[in-house]
Specification:
Elements (H helix, E strand, L loop, with lengths): L4 E5 L3 H11 L3 E8 L3 E7 L6 E7 L14 E5 L2 H11 L3 E3 L8 E5 L5 E6 L4
Parallel strand pairs: 1-4, 5-8
Antiparallel strand pairs: 2-3, 3-4, 6-7, 7-8
Length: 123
């Protein structure tokens, strides 16, 4: 077996797409309308092996973040450029502690989900 996708429900599809496409750099690979009930948007990275499914229900319902879900994680080769973009957008974030060997930041997406961005270590 292999991972297929992770689904998250979103309140504002356009704001969420701006975050995951405009900021994270994922690309939309498929969109599926379920009548007037919901829109499903599938995003992937450059390799295309894994998808994030954004589900936007059209009825305006609200959601509470569950305590079972941890976070989504993405690699970057340039963490400082990511931090500069986060600051340009005026978003709050938290960095890894300096004494840790790994370097990362956590930022919240428009629906409040934690997103970790890890600096890829040279091999």
């Amino acid at each position: 077996m292999r991972l297929a996708h992770t689904m998250i429900r979103v309140r504002d599809l356009e704001r969420t797409l701006d975050f995951y496409v405009g900021f994270i750099g994922l690309r939309e690979v498929r969109r599926h309308e379920i009548g007037d009930e919901a829109t499903l948007v599938f995003l992937t990275d450059d390799l295309g092996h894994y998808h994030v499914e954004l589900t936007w229900n059209h009825d305006g319902r609200d959601y509470e973040l569950g305590n079972q879900f941890g976070h989504l994680a993405f690699f970057t080769d340039d963490l400082e450029a990511v931090v500069a973009e986060i600051e340009r957008r005026g978003w709050d974030y938290r960095r890894s502690r300096p004494e840790l060997k790994s370097r990362y930041v956590f930022v919240k997406d428009p629906d409040g989900y934690d997103v970790e961005i890890l600096e890829r270590r040279p091999s």
